[in-house]
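Researcher: Go.
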Amino acid sequence: MDLKTLTDKLAKVYSHKNDSLTLRVSEAVKTLKKDLDTLGVDEIKALSDSVLEIETKTLRDDIESLLAQKEIIERALEKKSHALQELKCDVFNAIETQIDDEEALLKLHQVKLQSVDLFDFLSEMVESAIITTLEKEKDTDIKDTLQEVIKEITFEAIKEGSLNTIRIRKILSTILQSAIDISEATPTKAGDILNATLRGMRSGLIASIDRFKKRLAFMPIEAKHILIEDYDTIMEDLNQTDRLFSQVIHTQASENTNEIKKLLLEIDADMHYDLEELINISKEAAEAMRNRFSSFAKGAVKTADSALNSETALEAKKMGKQAWSVARVALGSAIKSAKDVINKAD
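Model: Structure:
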């Protein structure tokens, strides 16, 4: 019986009347009048695929339906999140119209920075901040003012979210690329802009890690669970923040013009010894986390150990042994074939 005939016949005789999967398979095989022990690999595969196709159809249809719903929900979430950020900004703008005092306005703007998710419009905000600094500050004040502005933006963008390298890299890269864009448009100020931006980014990153370190002792239980689950990753990330910072600079340098590349690499070389503070605060944060959560993390490992006896884990073990058996048989056949060739040669 060819493979197509086999699978077509199986599809016709297969019945869901019996509640037991084993009995359903058994009855189908009996109807086929096939001895599985005599089937080849291709026939076993065709038969298995057919049973899988039939048995998993409902679940696969459900998954496809859920994925479609997920896509719709994600698009809706994106729109709602954007609308939320816009509304937050509108609220602050409305409050701003009621304030005339300059000092009160500064306080409102500080609260706004803390309340709005900066990542949604980080690039535009950095560009605006740099342009405003260039327009309003004297040449002698540009570097200091811009460094402080970038520090504040970096700190506010990083502080509330996860300290994982992917997120931090994205934030730092976005800020730096925005500064590069302005630098290319104003080449006479490029050195000052990039120097201040990189130093501001570093200071903002240091401030974010320092805040994380100080808040470890007061984190709610929910946050502790997140840290425990991602304990190893966060520890690893904290121990390589200086490399991450330099990698962002080198990546942006390689993706831009030779002039920008030269400036970035020169500034990076000058800042090399200044990264000591970043390294130290990262180590302190890692140590604080280790002291506070290592016992929790060990407990999580024990929980994971007990999970090794779960049905899923046992099935994984079983499949691992089966894979070993298949490999062992294949290896045995290969060795036997090789011996046969050697014996014939003798």
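Model: The radius of gyration is 31 Å.
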